[in-house]
Structure formats: C-alpha cells, structure tokens
Amino acid sequence: MVSPVTVVKSEGPKLVPFFKATCVYFVLWLPSSSPSWVSALIKCLPIFCLWLFLLAHGLGFLLTHPSATRIFVGLVFSAIGDAFLIWQDQGYFVHGMLMFAVTHMLYASAFGMRPLGLRTGLLMVILSGLCYAFLYPNLTGAFTYIVGVYVAIIGFMGWRAMAGLQLVGAAWRWTELAAGTGALLFIVSDLTIALDKFCFPVPYSRALIMSTYYAAQMLIALSAVESREPVEDYRLSKAK
C-alpha cells in the first residue's frame, strides 16, 4: 500500500499547474452574465491541466491501463460540458448535462463493478430517490425526465466509486478514498446546480459549485494514478 505522504511527494508537483489554473479562475471571477470564449477557456483551464497531469505519467500508462484511459476521456467530455454551461442561458444547459452524463458513465466504468457493494448501492438508490423527489415538484417539461435520468447516472457513478472504499484495515487504499470523496463532491456540486436552477437561489452558489467541482475532478484524476488493472490483468479478468 502506498502511503498518502508518498503520494503527495510524487504527485503534488504534477498538480501545481492545476492549482494555479484554479486560482486564476477564482481570482479573475469573470461574470457569468457575459459568456465568451475567454471565460470558457478560463473555466476549462483547470480541467486541461488534469489532462496534462495524467499525460505526465506517460502515454504508455494510459494505453496499458483501461481505467485511467476512461478517466482521461471523461475529463475531455467534462471540458466540453463546461464550455456548454458557459452558454447555458442561451439554451445549452441540456447539452452540458449530456456531456457530464457521458463523463459519469466513463468514470463508473473506470471504477469497475468489483466489489459489488450492494449495501452502498442501496444507500445511493435511497439518496438519489430522495434528491429527485425533492427536485420533482419544480421540474417541468422534458426536465422532468432528463433530470431523473441524470440523477440515476450520477448516483450509479457514486455507487461504483464508493463500493470498494475501506477506511480501516489492510484493504485500505488511498485511490478508493480519492475516488469516493471525488464522487461525493461531484454530487454536491451537481445538486447545488439543480437546487439553484430549479428550486431556489443558493447563496454563493457559483463559489460552492466550482470549488466542489474542481476538487472532485482532481481527486478522481488522482485516483487513476495507482490504476486498478493493467491491460494484462484486465484481459485475464474478462477471460474468467
């Protein structure tokens, strides 16, 4: 098992561009009421840096680790979704939701189906159902179904991220902790978006949404470093 201190020492320097790009976003704080390609670039820049973070481990690393590759592709779709959401008031909100739905499916696939974690799955079903039940009275038209499907997808991703989480004992791994914490922060970010858009104004919503979102993406990208299955192990598991 790799210790968290070792992880910080080895991976911390590779994340410096991400932290700088995140600071740039919050310092500039470009108004969301005036969308532009510049504001889209500034918003997406931290995600671009996470692309570089994974690529810094070598293209061979991505090619031989399917789960890391899926997380990388998920980050690509995330950046596209971020760009769409810059123009959400011009009718691109659903486009952004679609991109992030694809992201969550890729992340869930990266986290895998082992261990199954039925209790965690049941808990996520209950929490997802409660969230949708709270949102439902404020949804109209196609959003009634679109939001329901999205909640199910992100709930599934959260289940797969947390299914293998062991906080104590020899089975503890920092990668599962990073993935599980990242998934929970992503859910908090998206739930805040939904509450602010469909239910009531959330105080400091943008700061809450973006801080939890960037933290979630960083942790999920970090979870790919000690990847779960090289190609050889992946093929063996499929053959069994």
TrEMBL record:
Subcellular location: Membrane
The EC number(s) this enzyme carries: 3.3.2.2
Keywords recorded for this protein, A-Z: Membrane, Transmembrane, Transmembrane helix
Highest rank taxon of the organism: Eukaryota
Family stated for the protein in its record: Belongs to the TMEM86 family.
Reaction(s) catalysed (UniProt annotation): a 1-O-(1Z-alkenyl)-sn-glycero-3-phosphocholine + H2O = a 2,3-saturated aldehyde + sn-glycerol 3-phosphocholine; a 1-O-(1Z-alkenyl)-sn-glycero-3-phosphoethanolamine + H2O = a 2,3-saturated aldehyde + sn-glycero-3-phosphoethanolamine
Membrane-topology descriptor: Multi-pass membrane protein
Any GO molecular function: alkenylglycerophosphocholine hydrolase activity
Residue ranges crossing the lipid bilayer per the database entry: 37-56, 68-86, 92-109, 116-136, 142-162, 174-195
Organism for this UniProt entry: Bos taurus (Bovine)
Enzyme's top EC category: hydrolase
One Gene Ontology cellular component annotation held by this UniProt entry: membrane
InterPro entries: TMEM86B-like (IPR012506)
Protein name: lysoplasmalogenase
